[in-house]
């Protein structure tokens, strides 16, 4: 008996290429590649691991048609040299064993190039918004952008055709051309980047699409009619004054004769303040966000197949899209990072076994630091060569392991150590496992976090001894006599020293999130970090009047929030939240707070019937000091919020995994 996901597991054949189901693992760069542009064993193993999990199509991400001239990632595959053919051919054969079709995304990023040695060519000499942002942040002038000559246009068209031929020589039956996210072909489409007046100019759809058509024609001529061409295509720029959806649909209709598959995306690749908000989308956005972007293309394109992408987190989402006939395939990436066996588990009707993506954007954190791609809920992600098939090294010898604290770090440490075969006891001072992870999941729009909690806690309970309502001191450790002590005691809320902070209307933000206290109608939140901002969003969307007071300037506050900063700010603005940066609460009274402008020194009173504290957390370092000498110091480990790299679920689980996999 097959699964209940009938549409998802319905095969489809296009020009003789058979796709065993309708799930696509969309393009991504793992960060494991070499600077020389060739596939590394680590990179190949990571792609093969996903193929083993069951997608019909897997696409290598963002392969530059000439990395030395135009690179926008530090570890891309360089399709400019025949040296890549061997590695691609080998990986294609390995992926094919699982019935998965391997493709590769070919790109010339144009003005978005950012790595040393790149030359920024574009339709017009207009600097990309992202380059302006980065230059401003670094205090330097942006790199110049050069207008493409016709000779250079012809040369780049040849680069695409050469790269496509190399894929054909490597045995590929499918390739993807990256025309989305304002990469070079998209720069010709957009009014924000094309100011030309020649035959490649912006003045008509015919001229705006000429470069794209010439690339497609050259590629088709080189690879023949049998090889499938998949086109990553933006349904809209999602930038003020940019390409609109109706224009994008007309452009797609013009170039459709050379395209077999359209993978619909949206948005600019730049600037940083837009990319996380529009291309991958966090938990601030609804699931299957691009349904409405995709529907017009489904209606307008008569012969090409459609792939819907972005914020598809599980196969229930995929089945919904396919049942509604919005697309022929459904693309996802982050769910494969969280659980590479997601397709296989759904095929066996084991959806409850899936470790679901929480859309936290942690995977973006690798890019600026040249790190391999991480996943917050799956710390083994990206380490397929080190741990083939996600198999952890068995414990040798088996040890008695004590884990103190059950937040994300404690849970991950306990689970990983137990899966290796160690005898694990996890001790929690509260009456339930989860620590600050529970608090994080209490915000209404973070339902994916609850999925992770419901996945990891039962596994810890099944594999480890759980002790609740217990504070661990040195005597407890000495009495238990563990071989290994992992301290993951987390962090405590900071209570700022403000007169009136002990009044009855003052609470922690998380108490309003979980409903343990009832917030009034006029709310002041102290602190504009993610905790304060997310609480503010939830309350404002419920009709409350919410004001946030933040001591830091806006820039540093946003930087501290990382990739989630821009979408959080956008949703807060939409909900009507008011934020006062460089202000401080100096006094809390019964029905108001006194607020000081730290720039001008002036003070004013804000009406408030509820004050919520979101002033940050402090590591519970006193627990470390109390326990670090209770057994041999070399067998004591610190994880999670007690480390310098604290503050995210991903940092917590990664630090815990690294400890537990090595003991």
Defining traits:
3 domains, five-stranded parallel beta sheet, 23 helices, Rossmann fold, 663 residues, TIM Barrel, eight-stranded parallel β-barrel, globular, FAD/NAD(P)-binding domain
Task: Indicate the radius of gyration in whole angstroms.
Answer: 26 Å
Number of domains as seen in the coordinates: 3
* CATH architecture tag of the largest domain: Alpha-Beta Barrel
The CATH first-level class of the largest domain comes to Alpha Beta
CATH overall fold name of the largest domain: TIM Barrel
**Unreliable parts:** 272-277
Structural class: alpha/beta
Q: Could you give a short account of the major beta sheet? A: 8 strands, parallel, barrel
What is the tally of helical segments? 23
Main sheet: strand order = 3-4-5-8-9-10-11-12
Q: How far is it from the N-terminal to the C-terminal residue, by CA?
A: 43 Å
Characterization of the model:
- The protein has 663 residues and is of the alpha/beta class.
- It folds into 3 domains: 12-369, Aldolase class I (TIM Barrel, Alpha-Beta Barrel); 392-493 and 618-660, Rossmann fold (3-Layer(aba) Sandwich), CATH 3.40.50.720; 506-615, FAD/NAD(P)-binding domain (3-Layer(bba) Sandwich), CATH 3.50.50.
- The chain is 34% helix and 18% strand.
- It is built from 23 helices and 27 strands.
- The strands form 7 sheets. It has an 8-stranded parallel β-barrel with strand order 3-4-5-8-9-10-11-12, surrounded by 5 helices. Strands 15-14-13-16-27 form a 5-stranded parallel sheet, with helices on both faces. Strands 18-25-19-20-21 form a 5-stranded parallel sheet.
- Helix 3 links the parallel strand 6 (120-122) and strand 7 (145-147).
- Helix 8 (245-255) packs across helix 10, helix 14 crosses helix 16 and helix 19 runs parallel beside helix 21 (565-575).
- The longest helix has 20 residues, at 150-169.
- It is globular, with a radius of gyration of 26 Å.
- It starts with 11 loop residues before the first strand and ends with a helix.
- Residues 272-277 have low confidence and may be disordered.
């Amino acid at each position: 008996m097959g699964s209940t996901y009938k549409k998802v597991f319905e095969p489809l054949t296009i020009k003789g290429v058979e796709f065993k189901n309708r799930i696509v693992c969309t393009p991504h760069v793992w960060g494991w590649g070499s600077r020389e542009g060739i596939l590394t064993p680590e990179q190949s193993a990571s792609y093969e691991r996903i193929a083993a999990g069951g997608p019909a199509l897997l696409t290598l991400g963002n392969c530059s048609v000439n990395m030395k001239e135009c690179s926008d990632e530090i570890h891309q595959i360089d399709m400019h040299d025949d040296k890549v053919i061997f590695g691609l051919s080998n990986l294609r054969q390995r992926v094919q064993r699982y019935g998965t079709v391997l493709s590769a995304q070919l790109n010339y990023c144009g003005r978005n190039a950012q790595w040393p040695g790149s030359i920024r060519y574009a339709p017009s000499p207009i600097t990309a918004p992202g380059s302006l942002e980065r230059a401003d942040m670094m205090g330097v002038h942006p790199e110049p952008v050069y207008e493409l000559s016709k000779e250079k246009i012809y040369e780049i068209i040849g680069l695409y055709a050469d790269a496509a031929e190399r894929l054909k020589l490597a045995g590929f039956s499918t390739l993807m051309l990256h025309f989305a996210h304002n990469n070079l072909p998209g720069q010709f489409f957009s009014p924000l980047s094309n100011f030309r007046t020649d035959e490649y100019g912006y003045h008509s759809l015919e001229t705006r699409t000429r470069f794209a058509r010439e690339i497609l024609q050259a590629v088709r001529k080189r690879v023949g009619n049998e090889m499938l061409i998949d086109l990553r295509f933006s349904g809209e720029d999602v930038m003020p004054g940019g390409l609109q959806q109706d224009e994008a649909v007309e452009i797609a209709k013009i170039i459709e004769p050379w395209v077999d598959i359209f993978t619909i995306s949206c948005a600019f690749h730049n600037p940083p303040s837009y990319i996380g908000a529009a291309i991958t989308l966090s938990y601030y956005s609804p699931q299957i966000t691009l349904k409405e972007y995709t529907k017009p293309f489904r209606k307008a394109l008569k012969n090409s197949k459609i792939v819907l992408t972005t914020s598809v987190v599980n196969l229930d989402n995929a089945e919904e899209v396919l049942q509604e006939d919005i697309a022929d395939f459904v693309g996802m990436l982050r769910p494969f990072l969280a659980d590479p066996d997601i397709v296989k588990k759904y095929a066996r009707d084991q959806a409850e076994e899936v470790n679901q993506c929480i859309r936290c954007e942690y995977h973006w954190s690798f890019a600026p630091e040249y790190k391999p791609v991480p996943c917050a809920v799956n710390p083994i992600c990206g380490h397929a060569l080190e741990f083939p098939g996600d198999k952890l090294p068995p414990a040798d010898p088996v040890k008695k392991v004590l884990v103190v604290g059950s937040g994300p770090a404690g849970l991950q440490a306990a689970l990983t150590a137990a899966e290796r075969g160690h005898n694990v006891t996890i001790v929690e001072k509260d009456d339930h496992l989860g620590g600050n992870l529970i608090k994080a999941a209490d915000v209404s729009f973070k339902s994916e976090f609850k999925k992770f909690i419901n996945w990891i806690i039962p596994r810890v309970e099944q594999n480890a001894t759980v002790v609740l309502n217990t504070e661990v001191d040195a005597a407890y450790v000495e009495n238990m006599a563990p071989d290994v002590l992992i301290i993951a005691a987390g962090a405590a809320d900071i209570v700022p020293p403000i007169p009136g902070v002990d009044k009855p209307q003052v609470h922690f933000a998380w108490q309003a999130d979980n409903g343990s206290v009832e917030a009034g109608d006029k709310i002041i939140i102290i602190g504009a970090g993610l905790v304060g901002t997310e609480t503010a969003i939830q309350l404002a969307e419920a009709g409350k009047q919410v004001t946030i007071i933040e001591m830091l300037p806006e820039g540093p506050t946003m930087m501290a929030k990382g990739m989630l900063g821009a979408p959080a700010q956008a949703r807060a603005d939409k909900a009507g939240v008011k934020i006062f940066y460089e202000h401080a609460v100096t006094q809390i009274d019964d029905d108001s707070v006194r607020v000081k402008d730290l720039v001008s020194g002036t003070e004013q009173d804000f009406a408030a019937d509820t004050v919520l504290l979101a002033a940050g957390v402090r590591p519970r370092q006193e627990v470390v000091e109390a326990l670090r000498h209770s057994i041999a110091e070399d067998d004591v480990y610190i994880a999670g919020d007690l480390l310098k790299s604290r503050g995210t679920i991903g940092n917590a689980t990664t630090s815990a995994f690294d400890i537990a996999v090595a003991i």
